[in-house]
Amino acid sequence: MVRRAQVAIKHVEMSEKKARFIKREIAISRVVHHPNIVRLFDVYFEDFSKEVEMVFELVDGAALLDTIVSHGHLKEKVARPLFRQILEAVGASNVRAVCIALGAVADPRCAA
After folding, report:
1. How far apart are CA 34 and CA 106, in angstroms?
2. Tell me, what CATH number does 82's domain have?
């Protein structure tokens, strides 16, 4: 069975500084899976040092930052559940797995 889904494509024209960031983003995205974190499906490139396409889960609705900017601020009643979701996603992102993906196991913050 072939399943078709809409996805978001992130195209990045690389530089030395961006390459370090993108490698880190890919490594973390491959080990972190949570309903409140956008999922990375795949990465395509011919020459990583020139450009990369990252295929992400498509998220419906406006970005949180766009919502805040357009309204100036969020009322506490609206902000509280959003903040709770952010905290749940961060808490579930398994710090140990992220540390392994980044090769930072020697860092004391990555201790089991």
Report:
1. 26
2. 3.30.200.20
27 closest CA partner among 45, 43, 15: 43
pLDDT tens across 26-80, in order? Answer: 988 887 777 778 889 999 999 998 999 999 988 877 677 777 788 788 888 988 9
Residue 11, both tokens: 């195209």
Write the CB contacts of 67 (distance below 8 Å, at least 6 apart in sequence): 74
| Structural domains counted in the chain | 1
What CA–CA distance (Å, rounded) separates 44 from 83? Answer: 33
pLDDT tens digit sequence for 91-112 = 766 665 666 666 655 555 555 5
**Which three-class secondary structure state does DSSP give residue 43?**
strand
Q: Confirm whether 50 is domain-assigned.
A: yes
Please give the helix or strand (H or E) that residue 44 lies within, else none. Answer: strand 40-44
Contact 93, 110 (CB under 8 A): no
